[in-house]
Automatic annotation (TrEMBL):
Pfam families tied to this protein: BLH_phosphatase (PF04273), Pyr_redox_2 (PF07992)
Keyword Cytoplasm part of the UniProt annotation: no
Gene Ontology molecular-function annotations: FAD binding; hydrolase activity; quinone binding; sulfide:quinone oxidoreductase activity
Domain of life: Bacteria
Residue intervals of the FAD/NAD(P)-binding domain: 151-265
Protein name in UniProt: NAD(FAD)-dependent dehydrogenase
Single GO BP term: sulfide oxidation, using sulfide:quinone oxidoreductase
Biological source species: Kiloniella spongiae
Biological classification of the source: Bacteria, Pseudomonadati, Pseudomonadota, Alphaproteobacteria, Rhodospirillales
Length: 557
């Protein structure tokens, strides 16, 4: 017997035999649902035989037979009624367990989100990809047709999505493109560190989405529920169906605030802040201005995260402000990093370490934030040093800047597009999906081993556009991505270490060393960060003007 838990109320199993009933009772089950019609297999016990055995052990049982591959709306209703009426927990079975898992999934369509249903079923070993349209339609069978069809569909209207749409339009002005995103506002997220440092105003980092969608691109203001890549179809919330010839996936990354116990309840108060949110970055600067003594903690979660330098940039700018006000000696700064190094590319570490020393900050490696009590101003970290048992430590704070754990969005993680870790599975050179040849991905959501930064998306967008157009012309990919990413590390007000690198940590500077040495803090790099990069983003990258982003030709060996 192979019983698999789907929820605290239901488990499912392949066909059971009479001897299994006693074990089910011992495991604590109080009811059984049979979803397999009698006579489907020569060796299966009849329902009446199972029912007689269940009666011996005080188990309730119900017969809800479903023909394989034909789960009807009425079947789902019957299952819902049974689950409502039967004592819990319940064990449901059929030949393999799939029909029972399907019935549960459809019965939850109006109670849970589609990604949560797919994830629960997947954890139990059942793929519900075949019923996503029904899940988005409240569990009922939808009309099977496409509501819209486009040559290219782009999922996500963040930096990557708008940029690749603009780059495609620059190459093929008549191309029919739709971009799918439910958001009303588009944010220049690289600016939030500067907001938290008192350099930018928050409103400078936001524009309406409608003002940025490229001319001639249709904006579908909706959320994606699921993908059906074998049929070249996307299912939207509400069961609308969008068909595509080519798909580009770039919805960004999920900030998993809830993964840290107690954090959500205290964000924006009690000295708990984060530059990773538009509404919280101003609170960071407010705290910095008020702070004159006490302990401050800056956290960094396990990789991958967007802009890996952002957690320490918050520390440097805050410390610089305290230094300028002559209160730094009264402030105890800690940088608690779940990883084991200050920065992943060693060439930039010496200069960063000099600033750590300048600000007298304590580096704590392998410290992963797991819980926060804002009212008590306490934080808990799991310390996981190599070859050492994990231990939990409690730390008091007066201010804490939190970088949240990050994952692929839920609807990506449970989709056929994802790799084992939940990221869109692409060839790291062409950014084409490894399984589905008419799908590409860029930005934070895909699994190429590059830094997740807006600068990376700026380079990736023209590459994907070139390769999509080549595919439309019946050609193989023509452009390649070398892993370029950039992280302007603001180490003090007026100086930046301009980290630029590609796959394997190879340095990829945009300027000659004699003009700008990216491994050292420079005033020129600060001017680039403060004055030049915002207009490059708004007026260049998002408008299809590929400044310093000409696609590199693919080298075929």
């Amino acid at each position: 017997m192979d019983v698999k838990s789907i929820s605290d109320k239901l488990s499912v199993s392949p066909q059971i035999v009479l001897e299994d009933v006693e074990q089910l009772a011992e495991l604590g089950f109080r009811s059984i649902i049979c979803n397999r019609p009698d006579g489907e297999g020569a060796d299966q016990p009849t329902f009446n035989e199972i029912a007689s055995e269940a009666e011996k052990y005080g188990l309730e049982i119900r017969y809800l037979p479903v023909t394989a591959g034909k789960v009807s709306n009425e079947d789902t209703i019957g299952f819902s009624i049974a689950m409502r009426e039967l004592p819990k927990p319940v064990m449901a079975y059929c030949r393999s367990g799939t029909r029972s898992a399907t019935l549960w999934s459809l019965s939850q369509a109006d109670k849970m989100s589609v990604p949560d249903i797919l994830s629960a079923a997947k954890t139990a070993g059942y793929d519900m990809g075949g019923v996503v349209r029904r899940l988005t339609n409240g569990g009922k069978t939808p009309i099977d047709h496409a509501d819209a069809s486009f040559e290219v569909v782009i999922v996500g209207a963040g930096a990557a999505g708008v940029a690749v749409a603009a780059s495609l339009k620059a190459r093929q002005p008549e191309l029919e493109i739709a971009i799918i995103d439910p958001a009303d506002i588009h944010y220049y997220q690289p600016g939030w560190t500067m907001v938290g440092g008192g350099i930018f105003d928050a409103h400078e980092t936001a524009k309406t989405m409608g003002s940025l969608i490229p001319k001639g691109v249709q904006w579908i203001k909706a959320a994606v529920a699921a993908f059906e890549p074998k049929d070249d179809v996307i299912i939207l919330d509400g069961c609308r169906v969008v068909k595509y010839k080519r798909l580009i996936v770039c919805p960004g990354i999920k900030l998993d605030w809830n993964k840290i116990d107690g954090l959500v309840e205290t964000l924006g108060k009690n000295g708990v802040t984060s530059n990773y949110r538009y509404d919280l970055a101003p609170y960071t600067w407010e705290l910095v201005q008020k702070m004159s003594e006490g302990r401050v903690i800056f956290t960094q979660p396990p990789m991958p995260i967007k802009c890996a330098g952002a957690p320490q940039k918050a520390m440097y700018l805050s410390a610089d402000a305290w230094l300028r006000r002559n209160v730094l000696n009264n402030i105890d700064i800690h940088f608690n990093n779940a990883g084991g190094v200050l920065f992943g590319v060693k060439d930039y570490v010496p200069a960063l370490e000099r600033y750590v020393q300048k600000y007298d900050a304590t580096l704590n490696f392998f410290y992963n934030l797991v819980a926060v009590d804002g009212t008590a101003q306490k934080a808990w970290f799991d310390v996981s040093k190599p070859d050492t048992p994990v231990r939990r430590v409690e730390v008091d704070f007066d201010m804490i800047h939190v970088c949240p754990p990050q994952t692929a969005p839920d609807f990506i993680r449970v989709s056929p597009l994802a790799d084992a870790k939940g990221w869109v599975d692409v060839d790291q050179t062409t950014l084409r999906h490894k399984t589905f040849e008419n799908i590409w991905s860029l930005g934070d959501v895909m699994n190429a081993p590059n830094a997740k930064t807006a600068a990376a998306a700026r380079i990736q967008a023209p590459i994907v556009a070139e390769n999509v157009v080549a595919d439309m012309n019946g050609k193989a990919p023509v452009a390649q991505y070398n892993g370029y990413g950039s992280c302007p590390l603001t180490v003090e007000r007026g100086k930046v270490i301009l980290a630029e690198f590609g796959y394997g940590g190879v340095l990829l500077p945009s300027f000659p060393k004699m003009l700008l040495d990216g491994t050292q803090p420079t005033r020129m790099a600060w001017l680039l960060k403060e004055k030049m990069l915002p207009p490059v983003y708004w007026k260049g990258m998002l408008r299809g003007r590929e400044w310093l982003a000409k696609p590199q030709k693919l080298i075929v060996e």
